[in-house]
Each structure stands twice: as structure tokens, then as C-alpha cells.
Amino acid sequence: MAEVDGDEVRRLRAEGGLSVAQIRERTGLGRNRVQELLRGVPPPELTRRPTAKDELRAEALKLRAQGGTVPDIADRLGVARSTAYLWVRHVPLEADPAVVRAPGASWWRCRDRGRCIGGWRGRCGEWPVEIPTGNGKV
Fold this sequence. Notes:
Layout: H1 6-16, H2 20-27, H3 31-37, H4 54-65, H5 70-77, H6 81-88, H7 105-108
């Protein structure tokens, strides 16, 4: 096969709107070599990431900042709960860290640990007296 130069690869991208895979198929070059030759050339529209849900993602962040839970956000925006979670997992539900409980805090340090078996409220029905900080100290 004849030697393919960078101008030919860039022409295929600009005029033909071909993807890297399509250029590789036509030229016989490897993926890394094609990407190296295309550095600085914008990708064609057909290979760009769709941005259809960017507005929904921004709305999900607003709802979370207002105190919305993941199931509420998912229902309101019409997306899966897993998608809503991925969008807002870095935003805490409570802005005040003193209010945020560590996992299992409700049964870890209640007044009567002997009867407290688990759940958000232990079997004894008490909320925790102390909230663990996560480093083993209360």
C-alpha cells in the first residue's frame, strides 16, 4: 500500500467527515498514528457526544442543591434512578456536615446497644446519641 501522509488523513477527516475507525480502514494506519496525525483537527459532528441530557443534568444538580432526593429527582426528570445518582452523587443531600450521618450511625451508638439490631432506627427505637466521625472516634 502506498505511504499515506498527514495531509491525506486530515483531508479525509475535513472533507469526508470520517471517523478515526473509517480513516484507519481506508488508509491501513493504526489508531494511534491516525489520532496523532489528526491532532488539532475537530471531530466530525457524527462522532461527537450527544448533549441531549446536559440540560437535565444541570436541572438535577439544582434539585439536589435544593434538597431533592435521588428518587425524587429521577421521577421529576424522567430518568433512571441510577442515572440521577451518577449525576448528583458528589452533591451532599444536607449542606451542613453536622447533620449528615455516617452509614449505620442510627444503630451504632444508641442508648441501649444490646437491643439495637439495625436499620435507620434500631429495634430499640432510639436515634443515636453520638454520631460517629468515621475514624473510630465519636
